[in-house]
What does this fold into?
Amino acid sequence: MSKNHERLIKNLVEDIRNCPQLPKLVALAIEEISLLLDEMISHQSYYDYLTALPNRQSFNEKLTFTLENLQQKEKMLAVIFLDLDDFKHINDTLGHGIGDQLLLQIANRLQNYIRNQDFFARWGGDEFTFLLLDINNIDDVSNIAQTMLRSLDQPFKINQRELYIKASIGISVYPYDGKDTETLLKNAEAAMYLAKNKGRNNYQIYRPNMGIKANKRLLLNHSLYKALEQHEFLLYYQPQLDLKTNKILGLEALIRWQHPELGLVPPNQFIPVAEENGLIINIGKWVIKTACEQNIAWQKQGLSAVKIAVNLSGRQFQDRHLVTTISQILEETKLDPCYLEIEITESAALEDMGFAIAVLQALKKMGVHISMDDFGTGYSSLWSLKRLPLDKLKIDQSFIKDMMNNLNDVAIIKAVIAMGHGLKLQVIAEGIETAEQLAFLKSINCDAIQGYFFSRPLPPEEATKLLLNWK
It folds into this structure.
């Protein structure tokens, strides 16, 4: 520091000491700063930092105040609970920065579709809540919910990328579905979960039995977090029969959950929950590894080597670490990749065709077999079949069930078999339950079958006995 700078600082300090108004000025400054801090803290307590919308606390207080001050108790109001579908997938694949930009755009778009008298808040994460006032009938609420869903039809543009997102909506109506804040919110959330179960991208209005279903779903959600570490999952194996050689050509691994309170929980109840909370990735990894270990165990017992097929959910298939995960599992278990078969649905593949082709080609290069599951229930696109590196088509059991009484089902099954063979793919029919179905599929040159007529899904011990004794 130069002498000139030192002299200037000393003079400044002296001037401050000799200023008679200094204490008053400091006190005023402190008071102003305190007021600003109070305002900031108050704003942060009641508003969301990202969207600047009212937050959960603000919504709760608004709803409580409104209920307490209704002048006409017979007047209706509605609570809407909106949850974005598969938003976690966007965060996981594109990053939280893109996710935040998308949330902001969604909030801005929804803001344009609500009425002036209504109250709109960000509940948290990818959830939003709405308080609809001055409702005359249920149709008013339904129309608003439909408008919200339609508002998400157009893509959101972020960094020259077009993103599509849908939502599930639950609705509760005062006074029919509750007369206090907690009940109305709980019932709107229960209705939202029903919308998820009904395929998403729809709205549901609360009905009394939803509360029971919502509580069970909540229990499943919490229990799933510890199910893996407590070894509550089981794999059953359903064999597949080659109709030409009468040999077992493979088995499909099917997950079951032995819940300590609910008993054996079928996958159609807990897989959707696992997809929503993201646990499906770890559960899927466990399934693949366990199936590979079981296959190695059978080979060490001297049994003929067969493929084990493992289903991938849409969320699993879109996981960018999938190929690495499967490669590591095959290396750890020492299973030859040709004895692992991955089953995907057509809808999962078509979600991002370029990504799907890259993933499947990488797996195929490894030596893993690829099967398209539930064929005929999705887009059934010849274009996708031509581009995807497949080995097998599985005809969905919905076509098999009534085929002996439905000529349309028969025509579809024949067409799928002819098309599969034309593309040099093996065709397997699932859901076979009668000798008549089996005989018919043999007569039209279906390659293989899977179903209860041959064998139900078996625990490992019973599957081992079947493989040992099958002639």
Summary: The mean pLDDT is 87. The first helix runs from residue 3 to 17. DSSP finds 19 helices and 16 strands in the chain.
